[in-house]
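Consortium newsletter contribution from the modelling node. Members have asked for a concrete example of what our holo predictions look like. Here is one, prepared for the NAP complex that several groups have been discussing at recent meetings.
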Amino acid sequence: MSKVAFITGATRGIGRAIALELANEGYNIALNYRTENEALETLKKEISELGVECYPVQGDVSKAEDSERMTKEIIEHFEQIDVLVNNAGITKDKLIQRMKEEEFTDVINVNLVGTFNITKNVIKYMTKKRYGKIINISSVVGISGNAGQSNYAASKAGIIGFTKSIAKELASRNITANAVAPGFIQTDMTNVLKDEIKEAIEGTIPL
Ligand code: NAP
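And here is the predicted structure:
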């Protein structure tokens, strides 16, 4: 049976690209989406055309009950999860003086608690199988910090510490955990930025 990759937040942007790339590599794809839309139908079709199976699960990664249910649904369907990509993420940018508590906690809850929720459920099955690859999407901002993104940077720095810790906990079960810290990538997340902010970020990239 083909290996199974579970990607969160997979209908748009980076998650969508990861899902298609892994499908192209021959993985069956379990994709998480939060909002049902046309993009999901198009992606399902594109994945199926690559000759692998696509199984969508709806849910909010920041909710523990959704994370548990989605993982169970995938296991009932595919009987295994070999690769987990914790990609779902949001931004709510504001300078700290203007940032409301919920703008801070919402971002932490989706980006960091969501990564914890899904990982905690998925590793139950990876540990039984003594195999697994966990890839958590952090950000360069989690390393450098960024004005207006204290919530987002904290969540992405948290993902790095979380990933390093679980890598140590799970190595003996043949499960690896790695964080990827992308730089600026053009998606819906960055399209909403003002031109001067985009130019300032691009100015920090040497080539
Ligand atoms: P995007 O285009 O805004 O897509 C985000 C995805 O996450 C969407 O599919 C969204 O689903 C999903 N999502 C959001 N909240 C969710 C929740 N509570 N539960 C489940 N899914 C949820 O963003 P992107 O640029 O592709 O970013 C993907 C990841 O890469 C994020 O973790 C982001 O922080 C990280 N990253 C991005 C950049 C960049 O420059 N773009 C750089 C570094 C890191 P809906 O469609 O339902 O909203």
